[in-house]
Amino acid sequence: MYASREDIGYDFGDDSKVGNKPIKPNPNIDGGWAWMIVLSSFLVHILIMGSQMALGILNMEWLEEFNQSRGLTAWVSSLSMGITLIVGPFIGLFISMCGCRTTAIIGGILNALGWILSAYASNVHYLFLTFGVTAGIGSGMVYLPAVVMVGQYFQNRRALAQGLSTTGTGFGAFLMTALLKYLCTEFGWRNAMFIQGAISLNLCVCGALMRPLSPKDLREKYVVRNDSEENRAKALSHSTETIKSNGVLGEEPEKKEEAANEEVLGSVQHIEIGGKSGSGRSMSGLRLFKTVSQLTVTVRKGFALWYSSYFGAASLFTNRVFVAFIIWALFAYSSFVIPFIHLPEIVKQYNLSRQDNVFPLTSIIAIVHIFGKVILGIISDLPCISTWNVFLMANFTLVTCILTLPLMQTYIGLAVVCALIGFSSGYFSLMPVVTEDLVGTKHLANAYGIIICANGISALFGPPFAGWIYDITQKYDFSFYIAGLLYMVGIIFLLIQPCIQKKQSREKSTEEAQV
Fold first, then answer.
1. Which residues, including other chains, have CB under 8 Å from residue 498's CB and lie 6 or more apart?
2. What is the distance between the alpha carbons of residues 304 and 308, in angstroms, rounded to a whole number?
3. Which residues cross the membrane (predicted)?
4. With left for phi above 0 and alpha for psi between -120 and 50, is residue 32 left, alpha or beta?
5. Residues sharing a CB contact under 8 Å with residue 340, sequence separation 6 or more, in sequence order
6. Residues ≥6 apart with Cβ < 8 Å to 490
7. What is the mean pLDDT of the chain?
C-alpha cells in the first residue's frame, strides 16, 4: 500500500522536489484566503449538489403537471446529475484555458439560465434540454473548479479542507428540500424554479472568490514539506527512475512551447514600440492585435496541457494506478446512489413505513455522511496515517454494508447499516486528495474531471439497472448483490495495480544496478 505519488512513482513534471533550499511559503496556503476557498466550495456544494438531492420535490410536481410515466420523468433528474459529472473532462479544458474563476462564473450564469428557462417548460422533453443539459453543464462548470481550487490552496490539511467543503452536500440536501417544498407550496413549481434560478446566481459570487494562485506559489506549495531529507531523496531517485522508464511528462516540450509563446508576444511588443510614432488608429489596432495574440497564446497553452494529459505520449492513461482508479469509479458511485433511490420501496415492502416516517433511513445516511467526511478528513491528515489506507478501509466498509443491507429486515438493523453507509461514504472527500497524490496539482483538474465523469456514468445508469433487475426478479436483493460485487471488482483493481507497479519498479532498479 502507498500514501502518495512518490511511492507510486508518478511525478508528472512536478517541481516539488527541485532544490533543497527552504522557501517561505505563501501564507494563503493552508491558511488565510484558503479558508475563503473552502467557504466558496461549501456554498457551491449546497447550491448544486444539495439542489440535486432535493429534486424529488420537483419530480412529483412534474409527474402531476405533464402526466408522463415515472421512468420518463425521472430522466430529467438523472440527466442533470449525470451530466454535471460526465462533462468533467471537457470542463478540464475550460480550466486549462480560462482558469477556475472564469469557468465557475460562466457556469453559474449557465446554471441559473437553465433553472429560469425550465420555469416555462411545456413538456418533459423541454426539461431534458433546459434543466437536464443546460443546468447540468452549468453545474459541472462550477463543481469541478470548486474541488480543484481547494486542492490547490491546501497541502497539510487537504483532506480536512475537502471534507469541510463537501459537507455542503448534506446541508444542502436539508436546506434545499425545505426551500423547494415551501416555494412549490406557496408559489407553484414554475415560480419556485424561477426563484431558484435567481438564487443560483450566487454561484457567480462563489466563482469570483476563487482567486488563482501564481505558478510560483504552486511550486512553493510542494517545496515546503514535512517529509524528512532521507524520504525526500528517496522520492527523488524513485521519480527520476519512473520518468525515464515510463516517459512521464517532461519539461522540454513545455519549455519549447513557452519559448514560442514568448517569441510571439515579444514580436508584438516590438511592433508596438516601433509604432508609437504612428497614428492613434494604428496604435489601437496594435493594442487589439496584442490582446488577440495574448488570448491565442493562453488558449494554445491550455489546450496543449489538456491534450497532453489525455492523448499525449505521457497522458494520464499511462499511469496504470490512475486507470485502476477510473475503473473503480465506474462501479463505486452507483453503490451509494442505489440505496437513496430504492430504500423507500424496500421499507414499504418490509412494512416499516411507520418507523421510517418518524426518521427516514435516507436522512440517517445524509446526516452521518456529513460527519463521515469531516472525521475521515481529520484522520487522513494525521502524520502517521496514510490517506490511501483510510480510503481503502472506507471502501471495504461501504461494500460490506451494500452486500449485507438486503439481509436486514428490521428497522433497527437497516438503520445501523444505513449509518455505516453514510459514514464510510465520507471517503468522497478523500477522492480529490488521492487523485492529487496520483497525478500532482498541475494535472488535478483534468484527472479529477475523468474521475467524476466515471462517477457520472455510474450515477446515470446504476439506478435504472437496479430497477431493471427488480422487474426481472421482483426483488431488490439482487440489485444490491450485483452492485456490491461490481464495486468489489473495482476495489480489487485498486489493490492489484500498485503492487504490480512497485514490483516492476524494483525489477528495473535491480537491472540498472547490475548494469
1. 1, 2, 7, 8, 321
2. 6
3. 33-55, 75-95, 102-120, 126-148, 160-180, 192-210, 321-341, 361-379, 386-405, 411-434, 446-466, 478-496
4. left
5. 362, 365
6. 327, 328, 329, 330, 331, 332
7. 76
**What whole-number distance in Å separates Cα of residue 124 and Cα of residue 63?**
9
308-332 CB burial, b ≥16 within 10 A, e <16: bbbebebbbebbbbbebbbbbbbbb
Given 3-state DSSP classes, what are the helix, strand and coil percentages for the chain, each rounded to the nearest 5? 80, 0, 20
Q: Which cell is 16 given?
A: 516539488
- Name all domains of the chain by residue range, CATH numbers in brackets: 28-211 (1.20.1250.20), 317-499 (1.20.1250.20)
**pLDDT value at position 268?**
47
Place of cell 417548460: 121
On whether the CB atoms of residues 283 and 276 are closer than 8 A, the answer is yes
Length of the chain: 515
Residue 344 has which C-alpha cell?
Answer: 423507500
Euclidean distance between CA atoms 249 and 19, whole angstroms: 19
Distance in angstroms (rounded) separating the CA atoms of residues 83 and 135: 9
Q: Give dist(CA 418, CA 23) in Å, integer.
A: 47
Is residue 444 a contact partner of residue 436, using CB atoms and an 8 Å limit? yes
For position 103, what pLDDT does the model report?
92
The span from the CA of 290 to the CA of 174, in Å, is: 50
If you ran DSSP here, which 8-state letter would residue 47 be given? I
Report the Cα 356 to chain-centroid distance in Å.
32
pLDDT value of position 313: 44
Is residue 322 a contact partner of residue 316, using CB atoms and an 8 Å limit?
yes
Exposed / middle / buried, residue 67 (Cβ in 10 Å: 0-12, 13-18, 19+): exposed
Query: Do 37 and 163 touch, CB atoms closer than 8 A?
Result: no
Alpha carbon separation from 244 to 6, 16, 131, 241, 440 (Å, rounded): 15, 18, 48, 5, 18
User: Rounded to 5 degrees, what are φ and ψ at 474?
Assistant: 60, 25
Sort 163 into a burial class: Cβ within 10 Å, 0-12 / 13-18 / 19+: buried
Three cell numbers, residue 11: 511525478
Closest CA relative to residue 487, chosen from 415, 421, 410: 421
Least confident of 100-104, 171-175, 473-477: 473-477
Residue 266 has pLDDT above 70, yes or no: no
366 CB-near residues (< 8 Å, 6+ apart) = 53, 170, 173, 174, 422
With cell 516492476, the residue in question is 504
3-state secondary structure of 8: helix
Q: What is the mean pLDDT of residues 357-385?
A: 83
Q: What is the 3-state secondary structure (H, E, C) of 166-232?
A: HCHHHHHHHHHHHHHHHHHHHHHHHHHHHHHHHHHCHHHHHHHCCCCCCHHHHHHHHHCCCCCHHHH
Alpha carbon distance 197, 111 (integer Å): 7
